[in-house]
Design goal:
By secondary structure, the protein is mainly beta. It has one domain (about 20-150): abc- transporter (atp binding component) like domain (Coagulation Factor XIII, Chain A, domain 1, Distorted Sandwich). The protein has 2 helices and 9 strands. The strands form 2 sheets. Strands 4, 5, 6, 8 and 9 form a 5-stranded antiparallel β-sheet that branches. It has a 4-stranded antiparallel β-sheet with strand order 1-2-3-7, with no helix packed on it. The longest helix is centred in the C-terminal third of the chain and has 11 residues, at about 165-175. The protein is globular. It starts with about 20 loop residues before the first strand and ends in an 11-residue tail after the last helix. The relative contact order is 0.22.
Length: about 190
């Protein structure tokens, strides 16, 4: 699988607007086809919610997912799963965690926005999967490897002059060790 950098989606609330995320129409998928994921975009953010050019351990992530409904469904869970390059599930977030479930009528398009705070992923490449369904009843759409996502090493942050809050530095020390913190601003 070649590496593809997801493009930022920006703020999009109008479901009829042109799709600016990474297209998922050609991705291998499983499910009953009642709905299809159409795009996903991952945007790194700093603590103030401002868009960043690159992701680093401890930044926030906004993940925008769009889907289209072929046949109506109700009360479904939408999940985003981060896998490492060995296939291990690292992060799993879903709408059910907030008590929210997805339902659409045939012909409708939907948009879900997830905001993950202070994501402490090790520097590296991750595979992002998307899942929509009802356990154990049905899988509506599942793309195991929708897009790839890269988190940069903290040392590179010195080159782009980003400030890392102290509580993030403490978490990075536990994950990376002090040798990798270098000139990143983490003392």
């Amino acid at each position: 699988m070649g590496l593809r950098q997801p493009r930022p989606l920006g703020t999009m609330r109008n479901h009829s607007a042109a799709n600016a995320g990474e297209s998922l129409l050609d991705r291998p998928r499983e499910g009953n086809g009642r709905a299809r994921f159409t795009s996903v975009a991952i945007q790194p953010l700093n603590a103030k919610g401002e868009e960043l050019e690159v992701a680093y351990p401890g930044c926030d992530l906004r993940i925008d997912v769009e889907l289209e409904c072929i046949r109506s469904f109700v009360d479904c869970n939408l999940a985003i799963i981060f896998y490492d390059t060995n296939g291990y599930r690292i992060v799993d977030t879903n709408t059910a965690q907030k008590g929210q479930f997805i339902g659409l009528s045939a012909g409708q398009k939907g948009h879900a926005c997830f905001l993950l705070r202070e994501v402490l992923l090790r520097p590296g490449t991750y595979l992002i999967g998307l899942w929509l369904g009802r356990i154990p009843m049905e899988v509506i759409d599942h793309i195991e490897h929708a897009v790839t996502f890269t988190s940069l090493r903290v040392k590179r942050l010195a080159n782009i002059q980003r400030f890392i809050p102290a509580h993030i530095c403490a978490g990075l020390r536990m994950i990376l060790g002090p040798a990798d913190l270098g000139r990143s601003g983490c003392e």
